[in-house]
Queue: 2 jobs
Job 1
Amino acid sequence: MRVNRRGKNISEFEQKNEPKNQRKNEQGIVILLVAVFMLFVVGAMAALSIDVVTLYTARSEAQLAADAGALAGARVLANSGMTSDPTLTATAETGPFGASLVAQWVATHNSVGGTRLNNAEVTVTFPATAPFSNPQITVQIQVTDLPTFFSRIWGNQQLAVTATATAEAYNPSGAFAIGAGPPVAPLCVKPWLLPNIDPTQTNPAVPIFAATGTAAAGLVGKSWPNATNPNGLFSACAGDCSLGISAPAAGQYYPGAIDATDFPAPTALPSCAAGFNAYQTAVAGCVQRPISCGTASAINPSAINIDQNPYAAGTRDSDTVQAVGCLIHYNVPGGVLGDADSIDLFDTPSTPYEFWGGNQNPIPSAQNQPITVSDSLVTIPVIDNPPGTPANPATVIGFLQVFLNPSALTTFPSAGNQIPVMIINAVGCAGTNLPSPILGNGASPVAVRLITPP
């Protein structure tokens, strides 16, 4: 017979049941240990997941900031005219109001990890491009001091994120363009079909675009009326082509046919367009139908027509002036100097120009401030006119981007219901049977696009 710790005898029955009683007392210990262990494991995993989610969110925010900065910088390159004139490259990229400054300004107006970016965290570069490529801009965001929440228990006090975006200004006929590249198809094109004659001079009649789609040199920054051509932009055919299409003249446009095929009604109009006819709404609003070069393409199934319908209510010129006054916020009738946006010819007397918000700019924060986009900056199609008068339907061979009434010191309109304009960009196309075009993002004929994957 056995004796226990207290000196008492242990019966045979107690000896037989002793292991079973001990096992009963030990039940649940392992589960308790596992539960405690899992508590620490799950807690650590949860803590780590919070930091991982924070990191991925900050990475997405950094990418959005980089994308926004690159696109804004590329828009400056597109509007600067450098794709049409390579001598403007240095100023367009790093000038006082160049793409570098704008890209950095836009990027730093974004937050990453709850903190607004600063200039040191944004790097802007311009990749070296081949002789026939289009200008590009790269924005890199690098934030190295994102705070951690729980992973600091492993010694990680801060996290870092990096994001990069590259955008391109694409001009199929520019100095850096690829000759075999696809054409562009801008939106908001105005129904003014300009013949292929340099509008800034009258003698000799130099074409705007060659057969290869290359734009004539020196167009960017030129305006009309000027000493060579005293007339502004106004309609050919004396404002009514129903009696026949007149011979082309420098700076005169043929009114485009306003219908659902060529220029359908805009979906939105400014309040000053109340009571406008269909032609005027196409001028004052944004026609959402893309216009491309050539006689036919996947996105341009029909050619553009010159309007030969009788026009009983005066001429296109008076209607154009009223519609343009609404478009550029000149408050016609009754507009005063400084109402409309303008080009700052004092601080930037040469290209690329700085655009300046007018007193009536619809965005209050843009009034009397430098701006990168303007309702006064419009795109007009250039049509082929092989010798003599142009054919109808007309063939679009390129686009001019012009600034309407560019000087804040010029009354609007000029003499004879004519519109002063300045050329900002020239975009041409080679041939007529062209591949599917690149859709423009807005009124600019120089397409801006991100070329880096998200």
Note: The chain has six helices and 20 strands.
Job 2
Amino acid sequence: MKSIRTHLSATILLLVSITIGFIGLFSNVFINRAFTQYITEQGKARSESIVYELERHYNFFNRVWNSDYVHIIGMYFMYEGYILTVFDLNGDIVWDAENHDCWHVMDEITSRMISRGTSGEFVTNTYDITINGLKVGSVSITYYGPYFISEADYLFIRALNTVLMSVGILAGIIAVFIGVILARRISRPVTRTAEIAKQIAEGNYSIGFERNLKTKELDELASAINYLARTLSKQENIRKRLTTDIAHELRTPLTAVDSHLEAMILGIWETTPERLQGCRDEVKRLKSLVNDLGQLAIIEEENLKLNKTTEDLLVIAQTAADNMSTEIYKKNMSISVIGGSSFVELDRDRMNQVVTNLLSNAVKYSMEGGNIQIEVIDSKQNGVIKVRDNGIGIPEHDLPLIFERFYRTENSRNRKSGGAGIGLTIAKSIVMAHGGFVMVESKSGEGSCFIVRIPKECEKIK
């Protein structure tokens, strides 16, 4: 299996090769076409130049040609690939290249053009020679068609093609070099990601991914891996603490019940209704803990079904306050429900459970004679319930963890008052199932305010 670096390098090399090949092909075709047009136009211009040179060497007054110069012109252009035959006004030959071994030159030109991959044949065009608008003769010009490339032109074309090929090869080498560097730069963090993910899978959550990779996507990948490691580390700590807390929560009442029963069985203690009631209370607390765990498991399942109806949060708040009136009375506390109606689609029983849990915590962690206030706020998007108390409050460092299962602050370690630490977890899960969220504002010694926000149009969070 090839590495990502190999794949990227091969892909870049292929793309560069194809690109350079197409550029070279199109450049060659374009240059050849333009050069062919240029040579053709040069041939026409050369023919006109021949006619002009011949006109200059005709004596109009004496009606004679300067044969020496005509001979020089003919020989010069013959070796340039132009075979001339000059006629006077009567059609008689003044000078003919056939009399000067022109066939040797024509054979050499034909062989040269064929060797260069250009096929064609010699063509003849006749031009009038005029002076002051009067015809004094004509010249027949034979040359290799459709065009003829001289040795100088051929060397120029070959040099140009060599330059293009060299530039293409150099560009390919540079592109491959840059591609390899780019592939290495991209593959290195990806390979590192795979290594880190493997170590995370093996339980090493402390490993981190370096940032500032100077590439947005790679930086996002590094952030995601680091976030994954932190989240898994946090979940692992929660799992370990959960196991420890469950064992601790079960061990204490079981030990108490076991020791009490053993003492009564051995006759150390007299079996009295009070002692049996104590054992029963411990069993009830165990049963409550198991029920809370089972309820939490059900609530946190993705397929939790909510029986939603349109309900008034103010009515739910008042009902929860009424249900808690006995506990509030025992601690000589006061409670008030303020605000207006807010109608929201929700599960009435589940939401009543949320408010009851929050009220229960407010009662537990408030001093005798304290005050609890429930406020209902209505907005276009949400219905909000605030449960505020003036109790012992929550330390700042405990706020991010207050909704974790089995978590209790230092001020609530007593089981008789603090419970098992599952109520807030259940409340949060129910609120999230409604598509809302719950938060807390608190200062140690100054009380707490729990805020539940339920959207009026919500979907269950997956």
Note: Residues 303-455 form a domain with the Heat Shock Protein 90 fold (CATH 3.30.565.10).
